[in-house]
Every structure is written in structure tokens, then in C-alpha cells.
Amino acid sequence: MTGSPDEDTGPQIAECMNCAKSTEHEVLRKTPRGSGVDVLARCVECGKVQTVVIRPPRAVRVGFTLSEGASSKGVEIEVDEDEVLAVGEVFEWGSAHWEITRIDSDGSRPRKSLSATEIIAAWAVRRDRVIVRITMTEGEDSSSSTMECDPEQEFSCGNVIEVEGRPWRIRALHTGKGRTLRGTRAASDLRRIYLHPIDSN
After folding, report:
1. CATH domain 12-54 topology
2. For a 10 Å CB count at each end of the chain, is N or C smaller?
3. Cα–Cα distance, 75 to 81 (Å, whole number)
């Protein structure tokens, strides 16, 4: 039956055993039962009266590996047992948004979608912010840092950016396909940004 157990009585949709399909029902009475409710309802089409049992789904814990830049952590996330998770879906957890990148069933077989109760392990990457690694080279010395930015923020070879209070010129961009000395890339596509002092050739 659609609608919340706390809603006022009125026409709602439920599966009618007599009509063998979902039909509009008139709610006659609601009786609280534990964390749910039993609804006495009459089918508008055939007039059959039946009790519709509404119970909230049980919560289950799904093990996720959450990746943010170069770091990853394992967590357990509570979801409803009747929820189906799919690769590509974005969910909110810990004040951040994460995109599911892999779901494994029994035997570590990857699946495109799976019921929460059947998931053995899942992986997700942060999508609202990304961590970009930076290498700053000055003469013979190099140091590393990171920058948190929007996934859609673009970086272009030759442009000047400020890191740790100092301006640097982008010498090269490294993506999953290799290093490039020209062009523009979004932060979500970058593995590393190489910087040189702005007065360096």
C-alpha cells in the first residue's frame, strides 16, 4: 500500500487479492503494530475488505570501501534490506556524496546491481570533492602536496595557480592515460599536477 502509515485515511493503492492487481482502496481503519501499522481497507473495484500489513524494512549493514583521492577506508553503511544498489548510483554519507563503482556478490563476482542483502562487498569514490596530488619542482628539489577541489574544476598547462601561498605555473598534467604538457583537464580526470616556479622555463 502506498503512502505513509501516519497519513490520514483516504484512498490508497494496494494489491487486491480478489482482483489480482493493484487497485485503489478505501482505508477503513488503521491499527498500530510495533513499528508499523495494520490497515483495514476495502477495494474500490470489487468491494473486498482485507488487512494490509505495513512494516518498515529491516536495516542491514553493507561493507563499503570509500576512496577519496589516494586514500581509502572501509566502513559499514546501513541501508534498507529491500533496497537495490547499482553501479553508478550516487549516495550521501558522512556529509559527502559517493558514487558506487563496484558491487560484488558471493564469490567476489562483480554485478551491475544487487539487493542489499546479497552484497558481499562494495566500492565507492567521492564525487562532490576530489583530492588532486601535486608535485612542485624548483631546481633539483621537489616536494609533494594535495589540493581539494570540485571534480569539474579545470586545470590547463601553462596557467598559474597558487599553492601554499605561492604562485606556480602548471608544467604538466598526469591523467590515467599518461602525462601531457598541453591542454586542459578536469580535476576528476587527474592523477597528478606538476608545478614549476613561474619564472622557470
Report:
1. OB fold (Dihydrolipoamide Acetyltransferase, E2P) (2.40.50)
2. C
3. 17
As a whole number of Å, the end-to-end CA separation of the chain is: 70
Q: Which of 171, 170, 145 is nearest to 160 (CA)?
A: 170
- Whether residue 8 is predicted with pLDDT greater than 70 in this model: the reply is no
pLDDT in tens, 35-75: 788 999 999 999 999 998 888 888 899 999 998 877 899 99
- How is the chain split into domains, by residue range? 12-54, 59-126, 130-197
- Distance, C-alpha 182 to centroid of its chain: 33
Q: Grid coordinates representing 35?
A: 513499528
Amino acid at 60: V
pLDDT in tens, 152-174: 899 999 999 998 888 999 999 99
